[in-house]
Amino acid sequence: MLTIAVTGATGAQGGAAARAALAAGHRVRALTRRPGTPAATALHDLGAEVRAADFDDPASLDTALAGADALFAVTTPFSTGTGSDTGTEIRQGTALVDAAARARLGHVVLTSAAHADRGTGIPHYESKRAVEQHLRASGLPWTVIAPAAFMDNYASGWTLDGLRTGVFAWPMPAGRPLTLIPATDIGAFAALVLGRRDDFAGHRIDIASDALTPAQIAAALGTALGRPVTHRQVPLAEVRTHSADLAAMFAYFTDHGLDVDVTGLRRAYPEVGWHTFADWAHGRDWAALLGR
Questions:
Q1: E-assigned strands of the chain?
Q2: Whole-model pTM?
Q3: Burial (0-12, 13-18, 19+ Cβ within 10 Å), 273
């Protein structure tokens, strides 16, 4: 049994990792800036120890990490409410790694993004790459898990806006494959890695559980909703008016793809219980999400 600190514990990836680690029998410290939120309370009810911690408060990180065996680290450039803030992600990720080094943790598992180590030119991939590089240089035992595109994003934002009218609006050509993964599988893989440090330390692993084209995603969403859904390619210029960062990401997905060895991962780590996109879509409460 390990004592695992989890940052971003009230978010999608951190919450999934915390739940998976608890299910595996580990002690979990759920680190959050807002210990009183419903998400934090839910983790407490599952057996996690909820602690207040702030990336911009080194003393709070030192207190939260003291005596822990390992850390699941989540960083994001999208936490300030002002779009992509890559400088904040690098600053906070660096502070977290430095705190882990001061605490002399036995293992840090950092969640990044598939292909972020390839010089993509996508701003929030480059900030994750910088945090990865700082972790590698820290002297700590480390593993980087790098998820593909999040399935969970297909149940929010402009996707829901389009689905209300039977349209899957997505900024990619209908036939261009994209690798995908739900937060649940990220958490399950993280728990596996945390429990097997000797097998994974020093490795960087891109992870995904399915690969579909936008046309296939539209069809799967239509099956889950019980009515036809058609794909419409959103122009990148339209995306760029909202976020140059996301426009760069979708341009990369279209021009280069986001290849991850889904078959190999399923074969090597069946205990993760990988979900297909159809599995994920059928597990959503679409009526509630769509307000119907």
A1: 3-6, 27-32, 49-52, 70-74, 107-111, 142-147, 149-150, 167-170, 178-181, 203-207, 210-212, 230-233
A2: 0.95
A3: middle
CB atoms near residue 204 (< 10 Å): 16
Q: pLDDT digit of tens for each residue in the chain (292 aa)?
A: 999 999 999 999 999 999 999 999 999 999 998 898 999 999 999 999 999 999 999 999 999 999 999 999 999 876 555 556 889 899 999 999 999 999 999 999 999 999 999 999 999 999 999 999 999 999 999 999 999 999 999 998 889 999 999 999 999 999 999 999 999 999 999 999 999 999 999 999 999 999 999 999 999 999 999 999 999 999 999 999 989 999 999 999 999 999 999 999 999 999 999 999 999 999 999 999 998 6
What residues does 227 pair with on adjacent strands?
A: none
Q: Is 28 left (phi over 0), alpha (psi -120 to 50) or beta?
A: beta
Q: Dihedral sign for Cα 47, 180, 246, 155, please.
A: negative
Q: How far apart are CA 154 and CA 172, in angstroms?
A: 14
The residues, ordered by sequence, that sit 6+ positions from 137 with a Cβ below 8 Å of its Cβ are none
Q: How far apart are CA 197 and CA 191, in angstroms?
A: 10
CA distance 34 to 95: 19
- Burial of 108 per CB tally in 10 Å (0-12, 13-18, 19+): buried
Structure token digits, residue 98: 């430095």
